Amino acid sequence: MLLSVPGAGCARHAVIEPPPSGRHIASRSLDLGAAVQAQPLLTDPAYARAVARYFTVVTTENALKFGPLRPSRERFDFTDADAIVDFAAAHGLGVRGHTLVWKRQLPSWLVEGRFTRDTLIAILRDHIHSVVGRYRGRIAAWDVVNEGLRDSLRAGADALRPTIWRRTIGPEYVELAFRFAHEADPDARLFYNEAGAEGRGARSDAVYVLLRDLLRRNVPVDGVGMQVHSGLHRPPDTAAIAWNMRRLAALGLEVQITEMDVGVTDAGGTAEERLDRQAEVYRGVLATCLAEPACTALATWGVSDRYTWRYPDTPLLLDREYRPKPAYRAIAELLGATAPAGP
Ligand code: XIL
């Protein structure tokens, strides 16, 4: 079967073979994911169709963050998360749960609560047990701790960002979060997810050391998420990413590209040139992931340029009308080349 892409931008009457949907791509044992929001999923049929058609796994973009989920200490609101998880189940898609412990999108009752260490540990335990437990068997992978590192790292200084978790509980909050998640779902794959730590440098070194130390203490951590929010001006260094993936793999860890997007407004050139350069960035990162056995997924941070946290930039694979862009075609081509599309 030929691999071609729906709405590939050529003549309208071009013969369109069955699209290289997520499912075709999945036959290659690499997931193509997208961060999904409940609101457009429920109200915009074109958005919902695109999710099911082009992707094999969804990440909850905001629905499982502490703030949206816990308007008050006593009450959970699972409405949006349930909508996403139910949609995924109905369409045979996997789910990445994002995220249990983060510095942002925290409710004010938590930030202003002045809790003791023991109480905050109890809150963390209860939160993770409730959330991971609710989706046990339905959410296969979790970003347990997200962006634990400081923005700038100095040699000899504590690498962990002084969030409410770090300040109140101490550095053990990381280990505790993983242990609580593992208790709640022993089969879920548990990730540490980080920004700007994909290549060589102090940040990726800090992630490496953090994960190595967790593993030495038998903390149940399975993988590292590399966000790869990027642009055209300083595109990701794929050779450095490959090197970093290999050293993490040598620790026994799985690696996923978890939040990729490639902005185009930071560079010159015509619109067409920028789309082509964007496609090359996606192609390069996907090729790197495909070449490293430890890399099991590439997820974009959004479905289409219609809804992106970087709006009005256009960093994703589908345009605002959900048409595949050159970047999507580059990805489909690469996956098609390594895995002939099958039914
Ligand atoms: C972003 C969402 O996309 C926005 O809708 C929200 O307002 C803020 O958070 N790194 C992460 C994600 O790990 O959780 C962030 O998501 C983007 C940066």
Question: What's the gist of this structure?
Answer:
This protein has about 350 residues and is α/β, with parallel strands linked by helices. It is built from 13 helices and 9 strands. Helix 7 runs parallel beside helix 9, helix 11 (about 240-250) runs parallel beside helix 12 and helix 12 packs parallel to helix 13.
What does this protein look like?
The protein has 13 helices and nine strands. The chain is of the alpha/beta class. Helix 11 runs parallel beside helix 12 (about 270-290). An eight-stranded parallel β-barrel has the order 1-2-3-4-5-6-8-9, surrounded by five helices. Bound molecules: (3S,4R)-3-hydroxy-2-oxopiperidin-4-yl beta-D-xylopyranoside. (3S,4R)-3-hydroxy-2-oxopiperidin-4-yl beta-D-xylopyranoside binds near residues 227 and 259.
What secondary-structure arrangement, pairings included, does this model have?
Blueprint: H1 22-26, E1 31-36, H2 38-43, H3 45-54, E2 57-60, H4 66-69, H5 79-90, E3 94-101, H6 108-111, H7 117-134, E4 141-146, H8 164-169, H9 172-184, E5 189-194, H10 202-216, E6 223-226, E7 229-231, H11 238-250, E8 254-263, H12 271-291, E9 295-300, H13 326-338
Parallel strand pairs: 1-2, 1-9, 2-3, 3-4, 4-5, 5-6, 6-8, 7-8, 8-9
The structure holds (3S,4R)-3-hydroxy-2-oxopiperidin-4-yl beta-D-xylopyranoside.
What class do helices, strands and sheet pairing give?
alpha/beta
Strand content: 15-25%
Number of strands: 9
* Helix and strand run: HEHHEHHEHHEHHEHEEHEHEH
Task: For the structure shown, list the relevant keywords.
343 residues; disordered N terminus; globular; alpha/beta; 13 helices; eight-stranded parallel beta barrel; binds (3S,4R)-3-hydroxy-2-oxopiperidin-4-yl beta-D-xylopyranoside
